[in-house]
Amino acid sequence: MKYISRIIVGVAFLIAIVACSNVESKLQDYVDEENVNLPIEYRGELVLEKCEFDKNNVVYKYKLPEVAITPEEVEDLKASFLNEEALADTRFKQLLTLLAEGGYGLVYEYSDYKNNSISITFSPQEITQVIYNK
Fold first, then answer.
1. With contact defined as beta carbons under 8 Å apart, do 124 and 104 qualify?
2. What mean pLDDT is predicted for residues 27-40?
3. Residue 115 CA from chain centroid, whole number
4. Looking at residue 72, what DSSP letter applies?
5. CB-based contacts of 31-36 (< 8 A; 24+ apart in sequence)
6. Angstrom distance (rounded) from CA 85 to CA 125
7. How confident is the model at residue 9 (pLDDT cuts 50, 70, 90)?
8. How much is the CA Rg of the chain, to the nearest whole Å?
9. Distance from C-alpha of 55 to C-alpha of 43, rounded to nearest angstrom
C-alpha cells in the first residue's frame, strides 16, 4: 500500500510540474505576441515600450514622455485597472486567468520624462480574487 501511495504522490507531482511549465510557456507566448507591435503610443501621453515575463510576473513597461507622475497616484491607478471594463477584454482576461492558474503576478512600471518611476503590482492572490470572485 505504501508503494501505491508513493506512486500516486509522484504522479501528482509530475502533473503539477507539467501544468506549471505549460502555463509558463503560454505566458511567454503571450508576452512575445505583445512585444510584436511595440512600442505603442496612446494619445501622446503614454507609450507602452515593452512587456516582459520574469518568471514571477508579467511586467508592462510604460513611458510618460510629457507627463510627470507621483507616488500618490499609485492607489488611484491600481483601483482603475482590474475593473469590469478591463475584464470585458477577452485577451486581458485570458492573461489574468493564466496568471491566476500559475500563481504569477502582474506589474505595471511607469517612468516619466523626469526619470521618476512608479510600479503598480498585483499579487497572485489579488489576481485570483478578481478572476474567480467576479
1. yes
2. 95
3. 23
4. G
5. 31/58
6. 20
7. very low
8. 18
9. 31
Distance, in Å, from the CA atom of 46 to the CA atom of 50, rounded to the nearest integer, reads 12
Distance CA 96, CA 131 (A): 7
Q: Does residue 128 surpass a pLDDT of 80?
A: yes
Q: Does the structure show a pLDDT above 50 at 18?
A: no
Per the structure block, which three cell numbers stand in for 53?
515575463
- For 1, other C-beta atoms within 10 Å of its C-beta total 5
Question: If DSSP codes are grouped into helix, strand and coil, which group holds residue 122?
Answer: strand
* Residue 67 and residue 47 in contact, taking contact as beta carbons nearer than 8 Å: no
Residue 101: pLDDT band with limits 50, 70, 90: very high
Phi first, then psi, for residue 29 (nearest 5°) are -60, -45
Which residue's C-alpha cell is 496612446? 42
Helix axes 2-36, 90-102, angle to 10 degrees: 150
- Rounded distance, CA 6 to CA 8, Å? 5
Report the C-alpha gap between 119 and 62 in whole angstroms. 10
